[in-house]
Structures are given as structure tokens and as C-alpha cells.
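tool_log.txt
---
The assistant was asked to compare two proteins side by side. It first ran the structure predictor on the initial sequence, then on the second. Raw inputs and outputs are pasted verbatim so the downstream comparison step can read them without reformatting.
(1)
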Amino acid sequence: MNEKLFFLTSQKKNTSHILHLLLCIPTFGLWLIVWFIVASSNQSHNKKLDKQINQIMHYKTQGLSDSDTYRQIKSDKLTSDVIQGRVIFVVLVVVFLYFYLR
């Protein structure tokens, strides 16, 4: 599991704010749009990685072995997918009933 933590940590993205600031000057601020998109994309990517890292660390601090931690994370993912599928199904049924009974 240490390899997984190292891999996740090495996948984090950094935004070069100095570079983007320098690119804003010759483009008269138009580069701010690109800067905002890149920064928000990197932040979103890093939050997903942090969530995975925190999940691994949570189970490791509970004393689970690497294989037990992997099984628990896989179980959590399946549970999350089932709940998400049920929510989507309920929303579709409600929308269908709304338009059908209207």
C-alpha cells in the first residue's frame, strides 16, 4: 500500500502561477481565463487524490493490513456506485412521473 500512496502523491499537479502571471501581461489579461481553468482543474484533480490518500490512511491507522485495506476500499467503491445508481434511478422515475402525470 506504500507504493499506492507514493504513486498517488506523485500524480499531484502543480500550477505555475508565476508563468501564468507572466503570460497575462502580453495578452492584456486574456490569459486569466486559461489560468483559472488550469488552476481549478489541478485543484479538482488534487482533491480527488487527497480523498484516495485519506481513505487509505484511515484504514491503515485502524490497523488493517494492505490486503484488508484494498478490500475495504473496493467495498466502499461498490457501495458508492450502488447508491449513485439508486439515486439516478429515483431521479429518472420522478422526472418520468412528473411528465407522465402532467
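(2)
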Amino acid sequence: MSIEIANESGTTVDTDAVLAVARYALDEMGVNSLAELSILLVDVDYMSELNHRWMGGDGPTDVLAFPMDEGSVDHGPGEANGGEPALLGDIVLCPEVAARQAAVAGHSAADELHLLTVHGVLHLLGYDHAEPEEEREMFALQARLLDGWRASRVH
């Protein structure tokens, strides 16, 4: 699994942990080991620009996921793609927004970034939370993946 990460946010982030939680989520979801993912950490101004350009939103958001063409995603051994790497897409995180949300939620900024990373991975894999049933499914899966990853770090 190839995961590239770039921290252009100006904020100190434990990128190894962000990579680890992304890798854990992809492994648990049965994503092909040849898959490629890009994670970019950005500042508030750039996230605001991306949010406006791609989502029509005002101001910064916490995470954006830009999946590649769904036809190119290889979800595991059940789908053959000739052994070529599947480019899953890009996850863009904003540590400053994550830190604000973490303070409100009562946990660390690192925990919030881990949650947002898993959230982004699930979006790249086609999960959404537009409808109540979709939201329940996605958020339950997100919680299960985070709990599993945290438990795996303890041992």
C-alpha cells in the first residue's frame, strides 16, 4: 500500500500516526495492497479555497476527500485489475480546524485528525452520510475502525 503524506499546514502533526490509521483502515476494509493514497495537510486559507471551489462551501472545512474514478478502485482480490496499482484518491485535512473541533468535542487534536483520516478513507471507498441510514452505517464503521486501530497500538 502506497500512502504519500505532505504537511503543508504550518502545524506540527504526527504524520506517522496519520499514515498508520489510514493504512489500518484500508487494510481492514480489504483494499488491494497495491492501492495508492495521497494525504495532504493544509492551512485554513487553502482549505477555505478548496471547500469553496469543490463543495460550494464558505470557510474552511475539516476534511475533503477527492476519489478517483470509482471504476478504477480495486476493492480486493475479488476484483482483478491486472495487478496495476489502484489510485484511490486524495484526502485533504486541515489541522487547525481539527484542533478547534477537538476542543469542542473534548479530545485531542491528534484524535480528531485520526477520526478525520478514517472519515476521508471511507469517503474514498464510496461511503457517504447524506441520508440518516448512510450516516449511521458510515459513522458506526468509522468508530469500529478507530477503536480497532487504537486497540492495536496498545499491544
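---
observation on (2): Helices lie at 15-28, 44-55, 95-105, 109-124, 132-154. The radius of gyration is 15 Å.
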